[in-house]
Structures are given as structure tokens and as C-alpha cells.
Automatic annotation (TrEMBL):
Protein name: DUF4255 domain-containing protein
Transmembrane segments: none
Biased composition (Basic residues): 225-235
Record field: compositional bias (Basic and acidic residues): 188-207
Residue ranges of coiled coil: none
Disordered, as annotated region: 184-235
Residue stretches making up the Pvc16 N-terminal domain: 4-180
Domain of life the protein comes from: Bacteria
Length: 235
């Protein structure tokens, strides 16, 4: 799921014109060594915190159907996670970095969700909403200063982006549907020691294919009237 969120963010930023203007979008950790090797304008989207949203944890199981409408599996409810990114712009001059960061901010704040057309893999299959929270307050996540300190770099202007996305539940296959009727044998063997082939019950909605298939029910005639007992009441 995490790599699918990365791809959704990359596509979203790409639609803003960053890639068309030669700006590279990467997901590397912006360490001091990485910054020294950078040579082109870059927008870095660094994932640094992952936490489950336990308030959205569900129970039970959903059903999975194939193209013919047959039940093929059951899936446990998805579990929701908050992915927090540190977004920075890198260029030769601070003015260019601020311009890039402003373009990224305008792109991310223009939508509260990742559009469905940008989702891939399990995110696309689940069809659930993936939300975005850009530059919002995150009291439960590490501060930007702590992140830069852990990376060993100098404090830099950045955007905090929080994505809430579902992780698909476990899938358990179910038994295939019943396609044949039950074989019923009245006696274990015929006279002479031959095994009784039995009579195969058929489903009412299934036409009789012949003696080798489902056996048609015998015509037993009209249903006899029920014998009156002492417990019956007379009108």
C-alpha cells in the first residue's frame, strides 16, 4: 500500500507541471550526503512516520466475487494508516526553491483526496477514499526540526503532508460452488453383487439432461389428504 501512495503522490505532482519543467520528484531521505550529490532541481517527498488510525478499525469480513458473480473468497476489513511525508524543494538558489515549494503547495492544497484515476494496485481495487492533509497541525507526529536532526542535515523550509490510506485485509478462499446433485442409494448392492449406481438428485431449476445426469423426480400423483387425529379440532 505504501508504494501505491507514493505513486499516487508522484502522479499528482507530475500533473502540476513539475516533471514537464524538468523537476525531478524523488522519495529519498534528504540527508547531507544526498544533498551534496544533487545536481538538478528536485522535489523530495520523504516518508518518515507511519501510524494506524485505530479509530477506523472494523470487524467482520467482506465477500469477493469473480466476473461471473460467484463467491470466491472472503476478505477481512481494511486497516487504515496515516503516512506522514516531509516535502522539500532543492535548487541552486533559495528563491528557486521557494518557487518550487509554492507550486507544490498549490497542487496539494487544491485537493483533499487523491483522485481515483491516480490510484493503482490495491488502492484502486478497494475503491476507498485516500485523503490528504497538507501543512496541517500534527501533534502526534515528530516535528520537522526533530526529523532534520535525525537526518543529520540543516533545517530547511518544508511541507508536512499526511495521507490516510487503507491497507487491504487478508483474503481467504472459499470452497467452489456445488454443481452436482447428491447421489442417493436405496440399497448397498443389487442382486448378483453389482453396485447400485444410485439416483442423483437434481436441482429444480436444472433441466433433466437424461439417464446419465440428474434423475427426474417420479410422478407420485396427487398429494393424499392428511388423516385426522384426535387432537384435530372440528370447525
Amino acid at each position: 500500500m505504501i508504494h501505491e501512495v507514493d505513486e499516487g503522490l508522484r502522479r499528482l505532482l507530475g500533473e502540476s507541471g513539475l516533471e514537464a519543467s524538468g523537476v525531478e520528484v524523488v522519495f529519498d531521505a534528504p540527508t547531507r550526503d544526498w544533498a551534496a550529490r544533487r545536481s538538478a532541481p528536485t522535489v523530495c517527498v520523504f516518508l518518515y512516520d507511519i501510524r494506524e488510525d485505530v479509530g477506523r478499525r472494523g470487524s467482520g469480513a467482506g465477500e469477493v466475487y469473480d466476473a461471473d458473480g460467484q463467491l470466491v473468497a472472503r476478505r477481512t476489513p481494511p486497516r487504515w494508516y496515516e503516512l506522514t511525508y516531509l516535502v522539500t524543494a532543492w535548487a541552486s538558489r533559495p528563491q528557486d526553491e521557494h518557487r518550487l515549494l509554492s507550486q507544490v503547495l498549490a497542487c496539494l492544497t487544491a485537493t483533499d483526496t487523491l483522485p481515483a484515476r491516480l490510484l493503482t494496485g490495491t488502492l484502486a481495487e478497494l475503491g476507498l477514499t485516500v485523503t490528504l492533509d497538507t501543512a496541517g497541525a500534527g501533534a502526534d507526529t515528530p516535528s520537522a526540526a526533530d526529523v532534520w536532526s535525525a537526518l543529520g542535515g540543516e533545517l530547511k523550509a518544508s511541507l508536512g503532508v499526511r495521507v490516510r490510506a487503507p491497507l487491504a485485509g487478508a483474503v481467504t478462499a472459499v470452497a467452489p460452488p456445488v454443481t452436482e446433485g447428491l447421489v442417493v442409494r436405496a440399497t448397498p448392492r443389487r442382486e448378483g453383487g453389482e453396485a447400485d449406481p444410485g439416483r442423483r438428485l437434481r436441482y429444480r431449476e436444472t433441466p433433466d439432461p437424461g439417464p446419465q445426469g440428474f434423475a427426474a423426480p417420479r410422478d407420485r400423483g396427487p398429494t393424499p389428504a392428511r388423516r385426522r387425529t384426535r387432537g384435530d379440532r372440528h370447525p
